[in-house]
C-alpha cells in the first residue's frame, strides 16, 4: 500500500483522514540514505518510488512535517475558511448586493470548489444584458470574464462598479491567503498579478477607445496609467 496521503486535484493540498498512527525514520534497505515510515509503510514519491533521503536530518524534518500537517489539519482548514468568510463579507458581499440591485435577483452562492448552476432568472437577466451590447462591448466583457473566471466581476467592471484593483483582489481572494500565509514568490505570484491586471486593463482600454469617435497621441499616453 502506498505511503502517500490522498491529494486534492484542485489545490494539491493533503485531504482525507489520517490513516497512520506513528511516523518514524529508518536507514534505507541498501544502507545508503534514510526513509520515512508511516507505521509499517515507507513514504513514497508521487511517482510511487520509495522516498530515499541523503541525510537523517532531512528525513527527520520530513517526518515532523507529516506529523504537523496531520495533527493540525483541522486548525489549518478552520483558519482558511475563517479568512475566506471574513474577506467575503468585506469584498464579495458588496458586489453581490450590487448584483441584486442591478438585476433584482439574488444569486446563488456556493461554498464548494465545484460551484453549481444559477437560477434561470439571473441567467436570463445576464443574457438580456449581453444581447444589448455591441460587438466591441461584448468582446471586452468576454475578455474580462475569461481573465477573471467570473461573469459577475466582468459585468461589474463593464458597468463601472469595479475598478482594476478591486477586481484583482476579488479574483485572487483565495490565492492572496496563501501569499499572506507563506509569502509572495518572486517571479511567480508577482508575474501572475501583473499579467492579470494587463489582461483586464487591455479590455478596459479597448472598450473605452471603442466608444470614442477620435483618437490622438494624448489618449495613448493616458492609457499608460493602466499598465504602470
From TrEMBL:
It comes from the Eukaryota. Its main location: mitochondrion. The keyword Transit peptide applies. Pfam families: ATP12. InterPro entries: ATP12_ATP_synth-F1-assembly (IPR011419), ATP12_ATP_synth-F1-assembly_N (IPR042272), ATP12_ortho_dom_sf (IPR023335). Keywords: Chaperone, Mitochondrion, Transit peptide. Gene3D superfamilies: ATP12 ATPase, ATP12-like. It is found in: Mitochondrion. The keyword Mitochondrion applies. Belongs to the ATP12 family. This is ATP synthase mitochondrial F1 complex assembly factor 2. It comes from Hibiscus sabdariffa.
Amino acid at each position: 500500500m502506498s505511503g502517500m496521503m490522498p491529494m486534492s486535484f484542485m489545490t494539491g493540498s493533503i485531504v482525507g483522514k489520517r490513516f497512520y498512527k506513528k511516523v518514524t525514520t529508518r536507514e534505507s534497505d541498501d544502507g545508503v540514505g534514510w526513509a520515512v515510515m508511516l507505521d509499517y509503510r515507507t513514504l513514497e514519491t508521487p511517482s510511487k518510488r520509495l522516498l530515499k533521503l541523503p541525510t537523517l536530518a532531512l528525513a527527520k524534518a520530513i517526518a515532523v512535517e507529516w506529523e504537523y500537517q496531520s495533527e493540525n489539519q483541522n486548525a489549518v482548514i478552520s483558519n482558511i475558511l475563517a479568512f475566506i468568510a471574513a474577506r467575503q463579507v468585506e469584498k464579495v458581499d458588496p458586489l453581490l448586493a450590487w448584483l441584486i440591485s442591478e438585476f433584482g435577483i439574488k444569486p446563488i452562492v456556493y461554498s464548494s470548489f465545484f460551484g453549481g448552476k444559477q437560477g434561470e432568472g439571473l441567467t436570463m437577466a445576464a443574457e438580456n444584458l449581453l444581447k444589448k451590447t455591441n460587438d466591441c462591448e461584448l468582446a471586452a466583457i468576454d475578455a474580462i470574464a475569461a481573465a477573471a473566471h467570473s461573469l459577475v466581476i466582468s459585468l461589474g467592471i463593464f458597468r463601472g462598479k469595479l475598478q482594476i484593483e478591486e477586481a484583482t483582489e476579488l479574483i485572487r481572494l483565495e490565492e492572496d491567503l496563501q501569499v499572506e500565509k507563506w509569502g509572495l514568490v518572486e517571479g511567480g505570484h508577482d508575474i501572475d498579478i501583473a499579467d492579470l491586471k494587463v489582461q483586464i486593463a487591455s479590455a478596459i482600454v479597448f472598450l473605452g477607445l471603442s466608444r470614442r469617435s477620435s483618437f490622438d497621441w494624448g489618449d495613448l499616453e493616458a492609457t499608460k496609467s493602466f499598465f504602470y
